[in-house]
Amino acid sequence: MKERKLKLFVVCTIAGCLMAVGPAYPSPYFLLDTEIDWLDGLADINGMSESGWSEYMSQWNEYTVEGNSYPNDVFLPHPGLYVYGGGGSWTDPCTAKEYNYPEDAGLVMTWGDACSMPDGNFSSAWVFEYPEDPDLRNCTITVTVTAPQFGLLPPFTRINQVSLGLQNLPLVGGPIRAWYWNCGPGQPIPWNTPTTITIDTSKTGRAAATPTASSFMSNPGFNLQFVQYIVVDEGGTWVGGPQNAPPPGGGIPGMWNYWHNLAVASNPPAAAVPGKWYVKWSQPPEKWVNDPNFIYGWDELSDHNGPQIVADDWRCKDNRPVTDIHWWGSFIGWNLPGPPAVRPHTFHIGIWNDIPDPNPANPLDFSHPNEMVWENYCDNWVWNFEGHDKDPCDRPERDMETCFQFTQLLSQDEWFYQDPNDPCDPNGRVYWLSIAAIYNPADYPIQFPWGWKTREHFFNDDAVRITNTNNPTNGTSWPPTPPTVGSQWVMGNPIFFPDPNFSWDVAFELTTNAPNYPDDPIPGDLNADKIVNLFDLDIMATNWLTAAP
Q1: How far, in Å, are 5, 29, 35 from residue 21 at the CA level?
Q2: Is 36 left (phi over 0), alpha (psi -120 to 50) or beta?
Q3: 462 vs 248: CA distance, rounded Å
Q4: Residue 326 — φ and ψ, nearest 5°?
Q5: Pairwise CA distance, residues 219 & 23, whole Å
């Protein structure tokens, strides 16, 4: 069968940008984030043809489903494309107002000639060639766009719309599905503000996009299984006058726009069937408040061979066993949607009993693990893509690291059982969970070591780094040597940032196959008292029409 290739467009218009980016990867999933990523991607970029642009606009006019058709502008072929490393600022020559360029590296597209281009609306495009024949069902496509606007009063040059679309073969005439967003004050894409766009391909309509799209188009012949192109474009108005593009572009372009953080990733698997798996303890990763598409935390190194193992406390209130363990983490410096080639062959999972904080009023004292009472060597773990990080420690090189969820299902003879009646705590027993990567000795030094994802404080005391242990049963100290049950805390320190007043935990969830009472809950028994009555109706009425975030 003839090899098919995927092309990713960025259509720019002061009006349009058809954009695709990234070096060639052996799957439909990729991320373009760093300056090096974008420089590598330039080798596969070509300008879009006038016939390709005409067909793109024709399908918008014919197959718009929700909202208005995308504005059709004068097409300008052969745009100028270059990679900018991020940072710096520009000054509007008309108003002397200073604007900051995005901090992220990305692709600048310039088009037109400031000396000869008349006022009006214009478009241009470029095409990125993808080496695979991808199936983009059940994926999330993410890209950040900074849409410029120059001057404070009309008439002024500005971006009016941006769009993102998917296209089947052929390059000219292939069926397309696309979304667009209006730009400006009160619109989904504010001017001069980096804005992240996502498309969930498992959905259709305007609501498949975040932020919600202003319009949606879909050709009836479009098929997600045979996507060959990703189309991203812009529409806007040019009013003469020099517009300063980010350096090192140089010169006086007619117009410019900026794209960064482009990624295609598979969606996480569906949740377990309700009523069959039950949560014992849950402290998942947190979303960044400024952009919920990012996970707020860093990956804290946790290696069973040293120099440290990370652990965090949790409370058990009943005697149901822990049958499944879920945790989140990243590989330091890694930002692609799949794990690196060198990854842990095993995770060591330990549960420890607790030494409470002897003096909560003294910040130098803290609770910590005491003795390991259970362990599991997890060599059949599974992973799924969770998102990308926003590092709270202001380390640009750690932003956009890929976060994965890891899962271990325990065999029945491996389940962890516990005593729910701790005489020191009538509300339940506090335990500590430790998770550490185990690599093959030949893997060291590890280029992208695994780290456990941090999250802001959730329960009791900080998560801790264990830096020394002692095992009186086998005489070993550090690093822990199997069997490690019986290992005792000797030394470590709490995890905080930026100072001891700001506590950090790590992200994990413990689940069980047993409900809160021996039989499965009765449908409608919302308060789990084994009967459906007016108390359950009151709970339902109180939460009527309440939606999840």
Answers
A1: 14, 12, 12
A2: alpha
A3: 45
A4: -125, 135
A5: 29
Q: Which value, to the nearest 10 degrees, does the dihedral of the CA atoms of residues 386, 388, 391, 397 take?
A: 140
What span, in angstroms and rounded, lies between the C-alpha atoms of 11 and 265? Answer: 22
- Residues facing residue 362 across a β-bridge: none
Measured between alpha carbons, how far is 136 from 208 in angstroms, rounded to an integer?
A: 14
Three state DSSP letters for 389-411? EECCCCCHHHCCCEEEEEEEECC
- Angle ∠(113,119,125) on CA atoms, nearest 5: 55
The tokens of 420 are what? 């729910």
Residue that has been written with the tokens 């202003």 in this structure: 214
How is the chain split into domains, by residue range?
A: 6-266, 278-512, 520-549
Rounded to 5, what percent of the chain is helix, strand, coil? 10, 45, 50
Name the DSSP letter for residue 286.
P
Reference 437, options 374, 370, 349; nearest CA is 349
pLDDT tens by residue, the chain, 549 residues = 223 333 334 443 333 333 333 333 346 787 888 888 888 888 777 777 888 888 988 999 999 999 988 888 888 877 778 888 888 776 765 566 777 777 888 888 777 766 677 888 887 777 777 666 678 888 889 899 988 887 666 667 788 888 888 888 888 888 999 999 999 889 999 988 889 999 999 888 999 999 999 999 999 899 888 888 888 887 778 776 656 677 655 545 667 778 888 888 877 765 444 445 788 899 999 998 888 878 999 999 999 988 999 999 999 988 889 999 999 999 999 988 788 889 999 999 999 999 998 888 777 789 999 999 999 999 889 898 888 899 998 888 788 899 999 999 998 889 998 865 555 556 778 999 999 999 999 999 999 999 999 999 999 989 999 999 988 877 777 777 777 888 999 999 999 998 888 889 999 999 998 776 655 555 666 666 556 776 667 667 766 765 554
Amino acid letter, residue 434 = S
Q: How far apart are CA 124 and CA 10, in angstroms?
A: 8
Q: Which residues pair with 120 in a beta bridge?
A: 238
Cβ-contact 140, 385 below 8 angstroms: no
Residue 58 has which token pair?
Answer: 């024709």
For the chain, the first-to-last Cα distance in angstroms comes to: 46
Confidence (pTM): 0.58
535: part of which helix (H) or strand (E)?
helix 534-542
